[in-house]
Amino acid sequence: MKFFAAVLASGVSATALYAPSACAQTGEQTYNIEAQRLSDALRKYSEISGREVIAASSLLEGRRSNRVRGRLSPDAALSRLLSGTGLTIELVEGAWVLRSGNADAVGLGSTEVPSSEAIIVTGSRIRGAGPVGSPVVSIDREAIEKSGFATVQQMLQSLPQNFGGGSNETTTGATTRNGTGNDATLGSSINLRGLGTSSTLVLIDGSRPALGGVGGLFTDISLIPMGAVERLEVLTDGASAIYGADAVAGVVNVRLRNRFEGAETMLRAGTADGDMTEVQFSQLFGKAWGGGRLVLAYQFSERGSLAAATRDFAREDLRPFGGPDYRSLYGVPGTIRAANNRIFGIPAGQDGRNLTAAQLLPGVQNRRDQREPSDLLPRQRVHSLYASGEIELSDTLTFRASGLAAERRYRKVNNSNFLRTVRVPVTNPFYVDPIGTNQPVTVLYSFVNDLGPQINSGRVRAISLSSSLEQEIGPWRMSLGGAYGAQKGRAFTDNVFNSARLAAALADTNRATAFNVFGDGSANNPATIAAIRGHYNTVDDFRTWSAALRADGPLFALPAGDVRLAAGAEYRREAYDYFVDNDLSTLVPNAAPYPGLPGPRKVKSVYAELLVPIFGADNAVPGFRKLDLTLAGRIEDYNQFGRTENPKMGMRWEPVEGVALRTSYGTSFRAPLFDEQLGENLSLFTTTTVANPASPSGSSNVLALFGYAPDIRPEKATTWTAGFDIAPPSLPGLKASLTYYDVDYRDRIGSVTEDYLRFLTRRDLFGGVVTDNPPIDLVQFYFNKPTFSNLINITPGQVVAILDGRTRNLARERQRGIDFDIGYAPEFAGGILDFGISGTHIFSIKRQLTPGATSSDFVGLFANPVEWRLRGRMGWSTGGFSANAFVNYIDGYTNQVVTPIESVSSWTTVDLSVSQRIGGAGGEDRRGLQLGLSIQNLFDRDPPYVNNRSNTSALGYDPEKSNPLGRMISIQAVIRW
After folding, report:
1. Which CATH class is domain 141-309+377-417+453-672+712-751+808-976?
2. Which of 6, 416, 497, 683 could form a disulfide with 707 if both were Cys (CB 3.0 to 4.6 A apart)?
3. pTM of the full predicted structure?
């Protein structure tokens, strides 16, 4: 037989667990098989069912079965026996053959599970069927350990489909693009395709956790303990028809180790070139008994901060790289601007008590690098506790429950965001007038020596609870479940000044208590410093409740197999609160909730998914070995903005064995975040002057609108994919997948605030947010608003244009590209050689920034994904030894936000991991010790130089496409007992 020939050709031993002499039984029989070694349990199953089961010996090594009891059909009994083992069963030439299922696959492509009715794969609600037509990346426990990564965010962010822009600890404080400014508590997210962190849905064992960030922007994946993760399933396709809102770019489902048995202790320590250290400890326990099981896991992680001073590229002065000097104009000592706008540098080496005009330095601007004394990465400390269990209440009724609780604390020395030109009255006892006019002067001054560096710190606490009752009714399964999630983040900003109390201290005539900005910050009265010291603290609180009733099973039989249906109804309630304690601008702190946040969001939904097998093993014809179709639909009703309907269709066709063609089509949507519904409750309308080539003077007076626009609607997207998977049986170990994708994203919620100074110089891009020669009554409407500020003191009639930089339904984006994975794992030198490459190539990102503007291609530009991102792999393993190397490639791109436009080089790094098992017989729950060494960025390659300037600071690298760690060396010990 062809299958057995392939097994022999691969050199892997195949075991016939039972070869019955009588005909195999097809009806229900009584099974009473205890949880035990899988090989023994399968022999017992074969004795009862009369079925012949074939398996490669290596697949059975170390695996344990589930307990099976009751009167069951052979299919149902085998499904229960194999549930959670990562193995699937397939009828091949008259014999039942065990194969490695999708839980052990790493790569792109279909995740069909031939006959395992107990398994639900991300992207489908139908048990035993993967998302027909849709691609899934599945990273199992073995692949996680081989990677050498310590955290879930590192593992997910290494995927070629991920874009590093958005809410992440590496980008916060370095840019405000791509929604980064809303990550108050320095969490980490995943941003598939670069379509936005809120457009990737993250699930934990199929349930939505509470969200973090301002407005509920993203799932903080830094809170998920790596030691408790069984596998990561990443659906790189829109899936709102299956999961509802937010599944525009895809779905990440974190599967936890709910079937673990035994005990596992992990210790890990690492350092980034001695400049940053990390330690990690985890403990896992699992126990199964007749009719039940329990898993407990705890993990502690601590990582030190990474100081910018230890990385040459982390500076505002980019002249050593051939770039500009972006150092802050706010120095210490500072710079005086006289009444006639001339500047005078304050000399160093004096405290400002006896400064005279003759000592000043005419024309000198004192600068200070605010970035160099800050941290690039915060100090983080995480505690995570996970528990899960299940109990068989009867032969057909099972209760399951799980809970994840986590706390993360952080601290970061930030580059100061609270710098200001201060006005010093003539009454100040330290007043110095450079030109003798006896008028107030302004001083550009940094308060760092008086108050200390700006410190951002905080704490995040989160909990996720879920439970369900599952009832088997013949071949159908019904489930009633509920979940609760809460996440509360507290963020503290200290060592900042209060402008109201500072103004009073500058006007103080008492030399002992007045504030002195004419020196080096060493001579001010401690009581005065304490008086001007302010703070800015926030509390964000997100809570979610959900309930679901689900059912799936066969409807009727076709020649190719059963037509199967999954259907359900769900209810979800989400609530978000944001509290601000602001002590920056008033004499007394102003502590109050965010104004205008909407009340709880209530979502009712129904869905259905149908799987129709057209061709299969029983009716295959040449060219149609197998053909499956799926159709899914979901209706969701929101109390805040109405109803949305989303369909999805998929097809998978196997013309011959080992070749599958697939395609999918569907629509998705993203609901507005809570803060995106604030409207004018959070807004700023101000007059300013911007460059205007159409003006004779080269500039014009405008009215600029910032904040949130009213009536923001959901975003919508249409996604389709087409691809193939190849795994020829004549060449075991070879797998290849390729997927073409096309995403048309409409009504995207965003703003172009970062570029408002270019609104009138690039009308081709921003014309849709410019109102020329606005009516006087419209200008007066904004002038009358309580949040209006007339910075340049003009009348409504002097406003030439209105620039709308508010967050609103703005852009449209269409992205097209391919994902691919090619791998080969033959026998070599007494072990298994595994090598391959996965990657993403984006053909285009056509984006229309504003309504009516021209559409431009943004792929390969600053603040956008690159054209090519690749991750190559090569490894060899034998017995308990494994060595693996990975090559990471990020393509070069164009920095279009600087003048002249600059090219940025590509970045290639190499990772290495080596492990050795000592003792034990193999398998996940084997006893023994496993030692590991991992090195990220083996050759210590610095990120490529980027002329990267933000609204508040600058850097010599791009944190959206690279990281500043350098070479990271870690050692790890895992003890299984």
Report:
1. mainly beta
2. 683
3. 0.86
Helices then strands, each counted (H, E), the chain: 12, 51
- With 90 as the cut, is the pLDDT of residue 441 above it? yes
Nearest 5°: phi and psi at 251? -135, 135
d(CA 390, CA 46) in angstroms, rounded, equals 26
Contact assessment for residue 625 and residue 654, using Cβ atoms and an 8 Å cutoff = yes
Q: What is the 3-state secondary structure (H, E, C) of 941-977?
A: CCCCCCCEECCCCEECCCCCCCCCCCCEEEEEEEEEC
Question: Do residues 515 and 508 make contact, with C-beta atoms less than 8 angstroms apart?
Answer: yes
Taking each helix axis from N to C end, the angle separating 38-49 and 74-82, rounded to the nearest 10 degrees, works out to: 180
For 541-567, what is the mean pLDDT?
Answer: 96
* Domain ranges across the chain: 2-100, 141-309+377-417+453-672+712-751+808-976
Tell me the average pLDDT across 91-101: 54
Closest CA to 413 of 322, 494, 519, 506: 494
* Residues shown for the chain: 977
Is the confidence at residue 109, as pLDDT, over 80?
no
DSSP 21: S
| Contacts of residue 245, Cβ cutoff 8 Å, sequence gap at least 6 | 201, 603, 636, 669, 670, 671, 714
How high is the pLDDT of residue 28? 62
- CB of 137 closer than 8 Å to CB of 237: no
β pairing state of 53-56 and 14-16: antiparallel
Phi and psi angles of residue 63, each rounded to the nearest 5 degrees, phi first: -90, 150
pLDDT digits (tens, 9 = 90+) for 772-825: 999 999 999 999 999 999 989 999 999 999 999 898 888 789 999 999 999 999
pLDDT at residue 751 in the model: 80
Q: Is 39 exposed, middle or buried (0-12, 13-18, 19+ CB in 10 A)?
A: middle
d(CA 631, CA 608): 8
CATH topology for 2-100 is: Phage tail protein beta-alpha-beta fold (3.55.50)
Task: Answer whether residue 173 shows pLDDT above 90.
Answer: no
Rounded Cα–Cα distance for residues 457 and 740 (Å): 43
Separation of CA 841 from chain center? 20
- Hey, do 2-100 and 141-309+377-417+453-672+712-751+808-976 end up sharing a CATH topology, with the first three levels equal? no
Closest CA to 256 of 236, 227, 277: 227
